[in-house]
Design goal:
Number of domains of chain B: 2
CATH architecture of the largest domain in chain A: Orthogonal Bundle
Radius of gyration of chain A: 26 Å
Shape of chain B: globular
Order of helices and strands of chain B: HEHEHEHHHEEHHEHHHEHEEEHHHHEHH
CATH topology of the largest domain in chain B: D-Maltodextrin-Binding Protein, domain 2
CATH topology of the largest domain in chain A: MetI-like fold
Radius of gyration of chain B: 24 Å
Shape of chain A: flat
Largest sheet of chain A: none
Number of strands of chain B: 11
Protein name (chain B): Extracellular solute-binding protein
Number of domains of chain A: 2
Oligomer: heterodimer
Strand order of the largest sheet of chain B: 2-1-3-10-4
Distance between the termini of chain B: 65 Å
Low-confidence stretches of chain A: 1-24
Number of helices of chain B: 18
Number of strands of chain A: 0
GO cellular component, one term (chain A): plasma membrane
InterPro entries (chain B): Bact_solute-bd_prot1, SBP
Largest interface: A-B, 38 and 49 residues
Organism (chain A): Nonomuraea phyllanthi
CATH superfamily of the largest domain in chain A: MetI-like
Pfam families (chain B): SBP_bac_1
Number of helices of chain A: 13
CATH class of the largest domain in chain B: Alpha Beta
Largest sheet of chain B: 5 strands, mixed
Amino acid sequence: MGIATEDRALPGRRTAAPGRAGGPHRAPSSRRTLLRRAGLPYLLLLPAVLLELLVHLVPMLIGILASFKELTQFYIRNWSAAPWRGLENYRVSVDLNAPVGKDLLNSFFVTCVLSVLAVGMCWLIGTAAAIFMQEGFRGRGLLRAIFLTPYALPVYAAVITWAFMFQRDHGMVNHVIVDQLGLTDERPFWLLGDNSFIALAVVAVWKTWPFAFLIVMAALQNIPKELYEAAAIDGAGIRQQIRRITMPALYPINRVLVLVLFLWTFNDFNTPYILFGDSAPAPANLISIHIYQSSFVTWNFGTGSAMSVLLLLFLLVVTAGYLLATLRGRKTADV
Amino acid sequence: MHRMRAAAAALALGTLAATAACGGGSAGGGQASNEAPKTLTYWASNQGPDIEADKEILTPELKKFEQQTGIKVELEVVPWADLLNRILAATTSGQGPDVLNIGNTWSTSLQATGALLPWDAATFDKIGGRDRFVDSALATAGAEGQDPAAVPLYSMAYALYYHKKAFADAGIEKPPATWDELVAAGKKLSTGGKWGLGVEGSNLSNNIHQVFVLAKQHGADFFDASGKPTFTSDGAVAAVKQYIDLMATDKIVAPGNAEYAQNQSLQDFAKGNTAMILWQTAATTLTSHGMKPDEWGVAPVPVPAGTPGTGQNVNSMVAGINMAVFKNTDNLDGALQFVKFMTGDEEQKTLNKTYGSIPPVKTAQQDEAFNGPDLAVLRDTLATSAAPLPRVPEESQFETAVGTAVKELFADAAQGREITTDLVKERLTKAQQQMPTK
């Protein structure tokens, strides 16, 4: 992140330098060249900015616009003619006494719990694996490659395999738990009822932890070996080395990693959709599925858009709060 | 100089991108025209065992059409999971096919979007008239009292498929004709790890098809005459409870069926693990799972008492595929010619034979091929005791809300929770609250 901001500052600094040397009282022509020079980077950025607007902002604005409309199947053909509903869609979404609002709140909680849990597990497993893989040993390359496979597999293929494994009667999970280990007599359901949350969490962690592993492994390469050697001479054990050297050095990476993992898990649509289909059981009804169901399955794109906007606002607040909090923490840590 | 040129190029690129993006997609209000009389785009639904099979079946027929009329048809077979989303996207953008297949239960919902060409008398005349079609099939093509938004293409109905050998082994002489008989037979058959009946508990549409018929048998409807949802009427509650009780109290359905949504119940049936299923035109799928046609029997779906008929003795929904023309097609005449071709006697016989469905066209239905023991049951059901699903614009919301309620109740039953009338009513109340208020 730091690198990116420095890069952007560079051209500005370069153009500013000759201007300062010339002094402010020079002829206006030089001011024009100054303007032109200062303007060039923006001009060069213009196509990118325009495309960015088209690709990202315009659909977002349309989504926000749609959230104020009654966009049902009666109007999707010519949606500019859809009647305005003002804040009605939002009222329905947050009305906690009605089923729509209650369900949204429920899936919001489920999503929050799942995100915290999955991010924690992903980070823990990823970091632990990366630290173990630092030591050189036979077969390390192979193991690293195996660890990365969940991340490299196409999501659909991976998750549908899990869905088969979680099947009650013929799935592998129950075969191991009930038939081979004999842990329970009853075959539990994994894709229905309360257990569906566990199934979802397992797949989410399995799918994402290799990313944490990959990033932390790359970051570990940047910590100078001398630090560990010096610490070892001073009598620090492995645990102390990890706590005093590895963790502080990983801080800037972790800061971004945790945020990215959180946003990914929070917004994940593929995993629950492939596992549970159009209607997920309540304990695993993630917010993205809930919004999909509210808009595409029931053909009410206005309410779906309103829920999406609320979600966007929430994620913006979380992200901003997180960055502010960690930034302050970092400044004091750096000094 | 260099810099200026670079800047100009950058600007040009930007404007180009902007105009290109605006140029695509005309507004949704386009009108039908005949600007492209030599080509048509056709979205077919997946009727055969897989997409490739459909392409192989349809391509020679489309070649025939091209030879007759000189119109080239671009075929795309769209999988069921995508079809509705694709149609919605095409409706929003106005960039759709000329002719398309729709699940007949979507007809009224899609009719409300105004994207499909209405079939008034003049339009019907161009394909041979409204009278060519069976009434019950035509009733699925749109809201009551309005010009249909589509015409029926393939018709299907529910029937009871049973294992002849399992029945013989258990000493059951004839297939059950009432629900009491079905439960009694199911109890005899549910022994030694085998089960009497298979259901598809997590398949929302299938849940709806079943409870719709049961509700009819209890004298109830899920919508009243003015189109308001009435999910919590005593009849509807009793119907849902009766369906769930097949697993919960009668115990003739394996608990694992609660999570079935990908036609696993058909596989179980083909393997001999369950002795009965209630399904629509299952023959093709059962054969593809390795069953021989003489291993199973087909009987009408049970009724409370007596024989299948109208009113409370309805025993199937009118299932099937309708064919629609997009209103903003740029080859209206060609599209109508194509519909005429596909609903003509010859194509109706060929395609329905291949797909194992029943022609919704009266003259084609008379063919010998639809008189075999399997298809005769389906044909008679369609003719005498099938009713269309509610013809309201909110049909798809209804399928989601009530279908999910049934799915959750099956999950409860499978996990050993007691299914009471109050619990069923509570779930249906919640489903009704999820429906859009008008």
